[in-house]
Design a protein that fits this description.
Elements lengths: L1 E2 L10 E5 L9 E9 L6 E8 L5 E7 L8 E7 L6 E8 L8 E10 L18 E3 L10 E4 L21 E4 L14 E3 L28 E2 L8 E2 L2
Antiparallel strand pairs: 1-8, 2-7, 3-6, 3-8, 4-5, 4-7, 9-12, 10-11, 13-14
């Protein structure tokens, strides 16, 4: 689903996509993917709508060009004692290069997990992705049990500590060359609070091993910041 910037020429015009009314809730998680790309991009805002009071409350908003990539968003819907709904609102900025799109919209029971969390048990990268060449030379993979190469790699995952649990890894056998890189990147994350945020993970390095580096790459930063 998308809003084409070429369909209007009036700055500030809006397009709204609204859900049906849903029953009161003790807490649910709204998740979706969005694509915000173009020099003339406007804003995308998510509202919580209430039927009785006819009020709309902004829950989430972006208005930046994130490049030609899909990013994930997850929003916890707090307890609501009346019928409620969701509205996606796209606002036109100026120019023709500002299409906004959303996809894979889901509402499920319970609070949202921390955006970026992933155990890889769904046999995918959750909200992470391999970046496109030529920034690196090969990709991360998701596997379970032993890797294909001898004398390297894990035999079990960390989540379940058995051969049926999944994990992310790189395959370093041929045709890999020294200094080849594989970059796994998270979705766009909200700025951390003033107290900062904690990034935790488990790693397995065994064999004729290279290096594992972690960088923070701000949307407006000129260069990634090496942190580990």
């Amino acid at each position: 689903m998308y809003t084409p910037a070429a369909s209007t020429s009036v700055k500030g015009e809006k397009a709204r996509l609204v859900s049906q009314w849903m029953n009161n809730t003790d807490g649910q998680c709204l998740s979706f993917w969005y694509h915000s790309y173009g020099a003339d991009i406007g804003s995308l805002t998510v509202y919580k709508r209430l039927l009785v009071s006819q009020e709309s409350y902004p829950l989430w908003k972006i208005n930046l060009d994130f490049g030609d990539i899909w990013n994930a968003a997850e929003i916890t819907i707090d307890r609501t004692d009346e019928p409620w709904g969701i509205a996606f609102e796209s606002e036109y900025n100026v120019g023709y290069f500002g299409d906004l799109a959303i996809d894979d919209v889901f509402i499920r029971n319970g609070n949202c997990p921390s955006l970026g969390s992933c155990s890889f048990e769904s046999i995918d990268f959750c909200t992470w992705h391999n970046i496109h060449s030529p920034l690196d030379e090969f990709d991360w993979l998701v596997g379970h049990g032993e890797t294909d190469s001898l004398f390297t790699g894990p035999t079990v995952d960390h989540t379940y500590h058995d051969q049926f649990g999944y994990y992310a890894f790189i395959e370093a056998s041929l045709p890999r060359q020294p200094n080849d890189r594989a970059i796994l990147e998270s979705t766009i994350l909200a700025p951390p609070p003033t107290t900062g945020s904690c990034f935790s993970f488990w790693y397995h390095m065994y064999g004729d091993i290279g290096a594992l580096n972690i960088y923070v790459n701000g949307v407006k930063a000129k260069e990634p910041l090496w942190i580990w």
